[in-house]
Each structure stands twice: as C-alpha cells, then as structure tokens.
Design goal:
Fumarate Reductase Iron-sulfur Protein, Chain B, domain 2, single chain, 18 helices, mainly alpha, binds iron/sulfur cluster, 0% strand
C-alpha cells in the first residue's frame, strides 16, 4: 500500500494548489479532459493522490506533464476544486523533487528567495562594473562568454542530473526498463514535443482556435534563434547585416509575444491565465525584458550611443544573468524541458508495458 504523507496537501498549497480538497471524486474532470484516455487517465486520480497524500505515487507519475493546462476540467468541476490548477502545482512540486540542489523548491515556495537571488545578481553585476576591473568593451566581451558558459554549465551540472533523476523516478523505479533500441526509437517524441508542443492542438479550445499554439511556437523558435544569434553569432558585435536583421526580428517577436502573454495574465479571461503563481510572472516578464533589452542594446550599438548609455547594456546583462542562473535552472523554464522529456519517458514506459 502506498505510504501517505499527511502534510502533502499543505505542501502543495505552497506550490500554488488551491481548493483541491473540495473534490468528491465524481470523475467529471477526467471525462472532459481531451488529453486523457483509457490508458492514461487524469486529472481525477492526481487530485485523489493529492487529497490522500500519496506523494510517492505523484513523484513517479508523468501525468502532471501530460496535461497542457487548457482549463476545461476546472471549468466543469462541480465542486470548484480547480483540478487544472492542481496539475500545474504538481508540475512545480515535481520540478522541486527532480532538482538535486533543492533550490527549485526554495524559489517556488518562497517569493522572497527569488527577490534575494535577483538582488544579489544586481549587486554582483554592478559591483563588477563599478570596481573598474573591466572597461565597457571587456564587460561586453565577458558578458558574451558568460552566456556560453552559463548555458553549458547549467545544462551539465543542474539540468542533466535532474533529467536523470526524473528518468529514475518515472521510468526506472516504475518499469525497470532499459533497451537502447527503444530509447533511441522514442527520441523523436522528445524532439517533436520540444519544438512543436503539438499535443496542445488536441486540448480544449486550442482544437478550434490555434492562436495560443502559434504564439507559443513562434516564441520557442524566436527564443532558440536569439540564443544562436547572440551566443554563437555574437549579435552585439557583428557587422553582418543578415545576422543583425535576424537579431532584431527574433528579439522583436520575443518581446511582442511575451507582452501579449503578460496582458492575458493581467486580464485573466480564461482558466489558463486566471491563477498566476509568482514563477509564472517572473518567467514571462523576464523573457519580455530579455527580448526588449537585447533589441535596445543593438539599436544603441547601431546609433553609436551605447558607450555613453552603458546602463542599457548593464540592464540587459542583469536580466540575462538572472534569467540564466535563476529562471532557467530553477524556475518555470524547466517545464519546457521536463514536459518534453515526459513525452519521451511516457513513450518508453508504454513500450515497456506492452
Ligand atoms: S476535481 Fe472536481 S470534477 Fe474532478 S473528480 Fe473532483 S469534484 Fe469531480
Ligand atoms: S487542464 Fe486540460 S489538459 Fe489538463 S487535466 Fe484539465 S482538461 Fe486535461
């Protein structure tokens, strides 16, 4: 029998869960969920596990990642137990279980930790600048190298070990299965879902109205392209017209789309945007500032006014360091990664059970 954690419900509330104890197990949420089927049924069983406190069952489950938060279940729940919001909170909780550093949990449970982290980074960057160790040119040069090392370091030391832990909890501990042919063959699930998020198209109103999916797709492509253009093609220093224009274009898409996402969260017109956890706000606002500040830095370079307005670059690099050291490894950015791996692991588990 699964062990129960009597404080599990209380813990989940710290990750943003609300009202799920009102559930009376009617099953309406599972019946209306477009992504649930007879083989993979949710969210009712996840609500049940949360109410009963079977946290180890939740830890080994991929179901919270298979939900794309359309909000249909919340709309139809007769008890207003907000199952869609619970699934989102479970994703935050799972992120903290996968993270070997424990910092994801600290940030998710405590907004003050985010603020302290952001302030430390502001102090570090400004301290470095005003200590005159580096001149402006060197600051930009090392800022560029920081991006490369941050990407490689965060992936190698934090995200990769966390993905391995996720695999252990959800695949190894559940089906004890390792077959290189199957693992290799299922890789397409990982790549397809990572870049297209196509499952969203079967979910809720997205089936008819593909606006959110298209915006999301453009954002993912824009974000990846901006990484390549700034990190590998050195956008702020390049003389190549094509690279320069591409940088303007993708950074524009990023800040324009994230601006729309921020407005939607402010207006709260659908279930998806009604409940925003601080980590949701940080993600979307920082992504907006990433695109916007990168756009402005390059305009300042082209107008030859950056040297006298270096605060613009400092603002950009502060946002970038906060993004790279807090939001990417410990915040909502990881959902993009874990969800894609969940699709991959789910495919492996399904094949293992055949
Ligand atoms: S969450 Fe709501 S819809 Fe789902 S089983 Fe509970 S009461 Fe029913
Ligand atoms: S939010 Fe949508 S996808 Fe997620 S469980 Fe509810 S109905 Fe299913």
């Amino acid at each position: 029998m699964a062990k129960t954690d009597l404080k599990f419900g209380k813990k989940l509330k710290k990750y943003g869960a609300i009202d799920f104890n009102a559930c009376y197990n009617c099953g309406t949420c599972t019946a209306v969920c477009d992504l649930a089927n007879k083989d993979v049924s949710f969210p009712r069983n996840m609500v049940r596990a949360s109410v009963l406190g079977t946290s180890e069952d939740v830890k080994s489950s991929l179901k919270p990642w298979l939900c794309y938060y359309c909000g249909e279940c919340t709309t139809f729940c007769p008890q207003e137990a907000k199952p869609g919001e619970l699934m989102m909170s479970l994703r935050r909780y799972l992120t903290s279980r996968y993270d070997w550093t424990g910092l994801s949990g600290v940030f998710y449970r405590n907004t003050v930790a985010y603020i302290i982290g952001f302030l430390l980074i502001i102090a570090g960057v400004l301290g470095l600048y005003f200590s005159n160790i580096f001149d402006q040119e060197e600051m930009m040069h090392y800022g560029h190298y920081f991006e490369m090392f941050a990407i490689a370091g965060v992936f190698a030391f934090i995200l990769l070990p966390n993905i391995i832990r996720m695999w252990k909890y959800t695949v190894w501990d559940t089906v004890k299965f390792f077959n290189i042919k199957v693992y290799f063959g299922s890789l397409k699930e990982l790549l397809v879902h990572m870049f297209t998020q196509k499952r969203t198209l079967s979910c809720g109103t997205e089936r008819e109205n593909k606006v959110w999916w298209i915006q999301h797709l453009v954002l993912v492509i824009g974000y990846m392209s901006l990484l390549v253009i700034t990190v590998f093609l050195d956008w702020f220093s390049t003389d190549y017209m094509v690279v320069n224009l591409a940088g303007y274009l993708v950074s524009f898409f990023i800040f324009a789309i994230t601006f729309l996402f921020i407005i939607k969260r402010v207006k709260k017109k659908d279930e998806k945007t009604t409940f925003s956890h601080p980590s949701d706000w940080f993600f979307v606002i920082w992504l907006f500032f990433m695109g916007f500040s990168a756009f402005l830095v390059r305009i300042f370079v082209d107008l030859d006014i950056l040297e006298n307005n270096f605060w613009m670059y400092l603002f950009h690099i502060i946002i970038l360091v906060q993004w790279a050291l807090i939001i990417v490894p410990f915040g909502k950015w990881t959902h993009f990664l874990y969800r894609s791996f969940a699709m991959y692991f789910d495919d492996i588990v399904t094949k293992a059970n055949k």
